[in-house]
Structures are given as C-alpha cells and as structure tokens.
Write a structure and sequence with these properties.
Shape: globular
Largest sheet: 6 strands, mixed
Strand content: 25-35%
Radius of gyration: 25 Å
Length: 365
C-alpha cells in the first residue's frame, strides 16, 4: 500500500501545478473581460459554457468522477464570471432618456454592474461611444408593434459604430399619476409618441387628450416635479418606483399584449461570430442604383450564396430626394468564405455596402 505521506506530497505537487494553471487561466479571463467590455458583450454566455462542459466531460474516463468534474468546471467558470464582473465594474453605458426609461431598463439588464450614462436623445448616446466618453450605447432598433426606429437605423448607416448584441425587452405600459389622483380627474396623458400609439385604444376609451414627450421616463420625471393631478403619463412600473410621489392606477394598458422592443448594443469594434451552428446573424446596409432590377440583383446574390434574409426594409436617404438605403439581417457567419465571396460580388453592384454588425441570438441567460 502506498504511503500516505507520499500520496499527500503528490497531491501537493498537483495543487501547485493547478495553482499556476489557475493564475494563467485568470490572466486569459482578464483578456476575455477586456474584449467583452470593448464590444459590450454580456458576461454570462450560457451556450459557450455548455460547450466547455460537454467537450471536457467526455475526456473524463472514470464515470464515477464525471458529475464531480461537472461541478468542478462549473465552479471554475463561476469564479471566472465573478472576476470578469469585478473588472467590468468601471464600464460606462450610454442610453437615451433618464432613469426608468425602457432603454435604462434594457441597459441595466444587459450590464448590471456598469455605470449608466443618461443622454437626451439617440444621437448623443451614440456619439458618446464614438468620441470615447463611454464604452457602449444601448439603443432601440425595432418595436414589434410600431416597427423600426428610423433615427437609430440612420445612425447605423451613417455612423462608425457596430451593433454587437441584441436584447429583447417586453414592453408593459402603465398609466401613472400623482399619488392620490384618480382616473376621473385625468384629462391628458403625456408620453413618447410610440407609447401613445401603442396605447391608442385605451386612450380613445377614456377620451384623453395626448401630448408627446421625448421619452416616457422624462414625462414621468416632469409629472413628479409638478403638482398637476389632471395629467397622467404612460411609462414602465420602474418609473413609478423611481420618482417619488407617483403611483400606477392602470396596469398593462398596451393595445397588444405582444409588445417587445429590440435593443441593440453599439460598440466601436465589431464582435466576432459566435462560431456555433445556429444563432449567428449579421446586418448589411447598402444602396443600389436607381434602375430596373438593381435590388433584385442584390437579393439574388445573397440567395445564391445560401444566406437566409430574416429582414429587409428601406429608409430614405437624407441627402437625395426619393432615394433609399436598405437594411438586411442575414442568418450566418460573416467571416466564412461564402460570406466574403458574397460581399465581394455585392460590392460590384451596390453603390454603398456596409457590414453594420454581428450578433448572436442563442440562449445567453
């Protein structure tokens, strides 16, 4: 039988090697954290961690040890996540609006440890990233009820940032008033134009007057600072919790119960594809000559290389009357040979061609 002292010496030697490997692993984790911070990517990537566990547990030949190894590697990755969160605490994220705005809620869910920086509009939030004031911006790009957010699409087309992630936030509108007010007192509702349109039926039922405001939370902030009990705002429940003196008197007043806004994360660098079989997407923005068949030729090139187009929409060019640019979301990896050949072909028929970003839609939480 092996002497216990010798066994412990061997364990000590293994522990020493594991210590050195741990230090090296965490040094690499720091590089990952810096990459995620620069691109505005979430720390917890569930798909990536699942792949790590599956790939490595197969190499554990002793079936008795497999469950313990799974626990070991999961704990190791948890330590790595905690370390990354600590490193990214100094991250700055800009959004349009004030605390309680839906962009604020999305930013907080995406980057719970970051410093959130308020900006009065989409462009100033976007520019804060471009000029290096903040690391990333979180901006709405599309609503399931009201359609695309044209101003943000225009920034994507003309600006120098890349979309690196997509986050879907369910939008639940509520009627918020000064504490003590009742619905019979309300004569006017104030909110962002899209929120008003998304609650059109409710507003019509009560015959309220309406007034547009740049942002739902800004409207609530103004109501909280005033004393008017005849005005209500349409906003999130977080707003009623953030601003003193407000309360919700009607919940979930959306016309549609399927109301979701897609928020994009914008960074100065493009994200690398996820390298999985499913879930990778990229965005193309382009213009074509104003002549018969030009758009069809572009779409045929995309199809001939096997890329499925999830979305295609157009927006007017500000500089040219009755001219448009196109926004297309494609499934797949933009770094493959097929994608590179497709982009090369497109460059010969598109007056302007831009890869505006890549993102992954697999389960990340």
């Amino acid at each position: 039988m092996k002497d216990l002292k010798d066994t412990r010496l061997e364990i000590n030697d293994i522990d020493s090697k594991m210590r050195d490997l741990f230090v090296r692993r965490m040094e690499l984790v720091k590089e990952v954290a810096e990459y995620k911070k620069e691109l505005g990517l979430q720390i917890f990537d569930k798909e990536r961690e699942r792949q790590v566990v599956e790939r490595n547990v197969e190499q554990v030949n002793n079936p008795e040890l497999k469950p313990y190894y799974v626990e070991f590697i999961n704990n190791t990755m948890k330590v790595s996540r905690d370390f990354q969160r600590n490193l990214i605490k100094g991250m700055k994220v800009s959004f349009s609006g004030v605390k309680g705005a839906y962009a604020y809620i999305a930013s907080r869910k995406l980057f719970p440890n970051a410093e959130l920086v308020e900006r009065p509009n989409f462009k100033s939030a976007y520019d804060a990233v471009s000029n290096g004031e903040v690391d990333v911006a979180v901006l709405p790009i599309e609503n399931s009820y009201a359609g695309d957010v044209g101003l943000v699409n225009d920034l994507m087309f003309t600006g120098n940032l890349y979309l690196t992630d997509i986050f879907d936030l369910e939008i639940v509108h509520n009627l918020i008033v000064k504490k003590g007010a009742n619905i019979k007192q309300i004569k006017k509702v104030v909110s962002h134009q899209q929120a008003l349109s998304q609650c059109h039926d409710f507003i019509e039922d009560y015959a309220f007057e309406t007034e547009e405001y740049p942002n739902t939370a800004m409207a609530a902030q103004a109501l909280a600072e005033g004393n008017d009990t005849t005005v209500a705002v349409i906003a999130s429940k977080e707003v009623a919790e953030l601003y003193e003196g407000l309360e919700i008197i009607k919940e979930n007043i959306n016309d549609s119960r399927l109301n979701t806004t897609r928020f994009g994360v914008f960074s100065r660098c493009m994200a690398e594809p996820h390298k999985s079989k499913m879930g990778d997407h990229f965005i193309l923005m382009f213009t074509v000559a104003n002549e018969a068949g030009a758009l069809a030729t572009t779409l045929n090139i995309i199809g001939s290389h096997g890329f499925n187009m999830r979305t295609l929409r157009s927006r007017p060019l500000k500089e040219l009357l009755w001219s448009y640019y196109f926004f297309a979301e494609l499934d797949g990896d933009v770094t493959t040979r097929d994608a590179k050949e497709m982009l090369q072909e497109l460059s010969t028929v598109c007056d302007c061609l831009k890869v505006a970003g890549t993102y992954y839609t697999g389960e990340k939480k």
